[in-house]
Amino acid sequence: MNNDQVQELKEGLQVIISQGIVLQLVKVSELREMAETIERQAEQIASLLHELKHLSK
Hints:
Elements: H1 3-55
């Protein structure tokens, strides 16, 4: 394997690693959004339960 081939392999690996890191960052961002959505929904459910208890008295 000559130096050019080694360099091409290194560059290819860097691209693959970079894309993997970007993909992981996107997934982390999506997970944060999902967690925020779940948190908002939990607050809404708690509020509705409170309202329901109040109405059933």
